[in-house]
From TrEMBL:
GO terms for cellular component: mitochondrion. Its cofactor is FAD. It is found in: Mitochondrion. SUPFAM superfamilies: FAD-binding/transporter-associated domain-like, FAD-linked oxidases, C-terminal domain. The keyword Flavoprotein applies. The lineage of its organism: Eukaryota, Fungi, Dikarya, Ascomycota, Pezizomycotina. It catalyses: (R)-lactate + 2 Fe(III)-[cytochrome c] = 2 Fe(II)-[cytochrome c] + pyruvate + 2 H(+). Belongs to the FAD-binding oxidoreductase/transferase type 4 family. Its EC number is 1.1.2.4. PANTHER family: D-LACTATE DEHYDROGENASE, D-LACTATE DEHYDROGENASE, MITOCHONDRIAL-RELATED. This is D-lactate dehydrogenase (cytochrome). Residues 134-330 form the FAD-binding PCMH-type domain. GO terms for biological process: lactate catabolic process. Keywords: FAD, Flavoprotein, Mitochondrion, Oxidoreductase, Transit peptide.
Amino acid sequence: MLRNLSTPAVRSYRQIFGITRHSPGKPRLNLVNSSKRVYSVDTSHVSHPRSRSSGWFRPLVAASIASTITGCLIFSIGDSPSENTYQRKPHYATLEEMEMAIKEIHRELGEDSISTDDEDLKMHGYSEWSSINIDRLPVAVAFPKSTEEVAAIARVCHKYKVPMIPYSGGSSVEGHFSAPFGGINVDFMNMSDIVAFHPEDMDIVVQPSVSWMDLNETIKSSGLFFPVDPGPPVCGFISVINTEQLLITVMQAKIGGMIATNCSGTNAVRYGTMKDWIVNLTIVLPDGRIIKTRKRPRKSSAGYNLNGLFTGSEGTLGFVTEATLKLASIPQKTGVGVATFPTMRDAANAATQIVRQGIPVGAVEILDDVQMDVINKMGATGRVWKELPTLFFKFSGTNVGVHDNIDDVRKIVYDNQGSDLEVEKDPAKQAVLWSARKEALWSMLCMRESGHEVWSTDVAVPLSRLPDLVEISKHDLESLGLFGSMLGHVGDGNFHETILFNGATERDLVSKCVHDMVHRAIQMEGTCTGEHGIGLGKKEFMEQEVGEGSLSVMRGIKLSVDPFWLMNPGKIFDPQEI
């Protein structure tokens, strides 16, 4: 049954400990976190994107909820525009209109189609892993089962001017599924099917809630795989930090979110990013229209590249409900290698030299000494590692090719003061050797003390500037006395910082550290984000990176496709900036 929305959408929440997220139609994953953190009510979080809450919610006061539901931060003045008028200051639904929209979706799609359950709202509006959280939640969560149902939801939301926020894997670290203007969160969990598989054409058609790991497991017998591999989950990886905190990681990236952020992963140095593997997309537009970007050829010169337009748009232009993806052949032979170095600069120099010399490594990843120490402390890999800056390599190809590539890499490692390259060619032993890279982020998260926070961010720079940026950023972390690690896909100039901190005493230091790193990357002709996306967290860097001219073109596209600012509003840039 739907609740009356005149009651606060968020009441006192019991501590989440082994609770199962509400799931109309399908069982949901368990998210366990018992930290006793307080979620403060501070409206400045909307206007200052890098402000963060300090943890799980305390009851939000009725006034805060009312401001979310009744008007959802109404910006406009005067009469409502005609359907053909571009809106610079959008007018969002009133309380009564919000109730009408939810009831209409309920009538049209059925009882399990939409939820106003407190736990659903919380799970879809707040993330322990995000670098930014705000003090507003969606007022409902919809669970469509098909493209047509997504279109029906969009038509209703368009009719009443209700914001829509997409949700797939929940692994965003930049606030992508936050609801700064309230609205309805659209969870694609019931759209997790492989629609069609064409092994003879080396492509596959999937719905947005298919995970890349499940996809590869399903098709591995065909000799094909999907190579884009953002950080995997660690299902069942349990860490007891103290008697008050138990963490089980259950998130994993899904195809919809991967497209929305143009994500990449460890394989990017060889296989590229998400945009390189998309054949076509089925998109639901803000008014409920359904489009398909093109047919099914592996290349096309017909008209505008709509795949490129929607990929990386973070759900601000339309929602992906189906995607045809290219596949690659599983390599004949593989290998994994590991080498340590005296300094981060030595490791980064080796990585960039390997790429510049054209050695076709499958992956080259860097982990600093702090990260290696954390992995040892967590004991997640079954071996003890040297606590030094470390490069992890993947090799793939023919037997002869892999052998030659390993020899070439070994020489470059030696020339940069590296250790002897440890190599495994047996698949089972490769998994053990690669496990440190796989478990790196989650090991770091499990070090977080109760009540403390995490800030995970990424940048990317041209290869020649990578050693400089890595060295300076490492020095900044240490000089500020912060506990943070560095890791990343250095083969294409991309790396991450993950900082654990006490929000009450260290927030300003962490903010300075991250901002300095991002500004420095942009000054080096790099980017504020190589794969995480902009979301709420990195909007402030957009103009510095792309310039006002390019930013105005992006805003113009947004206005043309979504004149009422209904789809994921507040991400990439704000309505009031127009």
